[in-house]
Amino acid sequence: MTRTAIVTGAGKRVGRVLAEGLLADGWTVVAHVRRETDDVPQGALKVVADLADGDGAAEAIMAACAQAPSLLVNNAARFAPDTLSRFSADELAAHMAVNVAAPALLTAAFGRAAGEGRDRLVVNILDAKLAAPNPDFLSYTLSKAALAALTTLSAQDLAARGIRVNAIAPALMLISEGQTQANFDAMHRFNPLQRGVEPADVLHALRFLVDSPTLTGETLTLDGGQRFWRLPRDVQYLDPGQS
């Protein structure tokens, strides 16, 4: 029997790369997207749900699994710019609903669905900026910090059932909305190793976690050492000419 993996936000960017990689590895992939018009990798089982809908979204995603899933990748995220001077409780709530509550609900449902006797794994996609935070993207950063806490707490809670929970925290991989191409080109490799992080690096890390049955409650930070520099702002707001 093939193993089943759930990947949220599997229609584009790194989520799509992860779904494609798992399909290549022989997994049955339940690929979550937000809109009916969103595409998923060929061979994946598409499930449409708005993660802001809470319990309903988690139930719809789990119902799409023909068997108890062995892997849950909480990849989908809200990413909108704000700072303390422009803080909005509504914006924070919107980030927390998608970036924290949805992964928590899915992780809880994953735990309830899990049978006995097989290694099961939850992987949360964080952000390398948590290792050296700056005040840009305040609500997003707060939500990812909460997801990091959820990683630790759920790893503790689910270990007795043989379920592992880990995280991957990548730095800048793909150009973001509002970011200029010049900034991306300058900042992608702006780290001590001078190596840009690619979506394939996240896939390699995911495969490592899958193949590490005694590893739980850990975060793999993929940033080329950028955290050592403790940048004062998000990279898309830094001057490429100063890099």
UniProtKB/TrEMBL annotation:
A Pfam family assignment: adh_short_C2
Name used for this protein in its record: Short chain dehydrogenase
Native organism: Sphingomonas astaxanthinifaciens DSM 22298
Family note: Belongs to the short-chain dehydrogenases/reductases (SDR) family.
Alphabetical list of InterPro entries matching this protein: NAD(P)-bd_dom_sf, SDR_fam
Alphabetical keyword list: Oxidoreductase
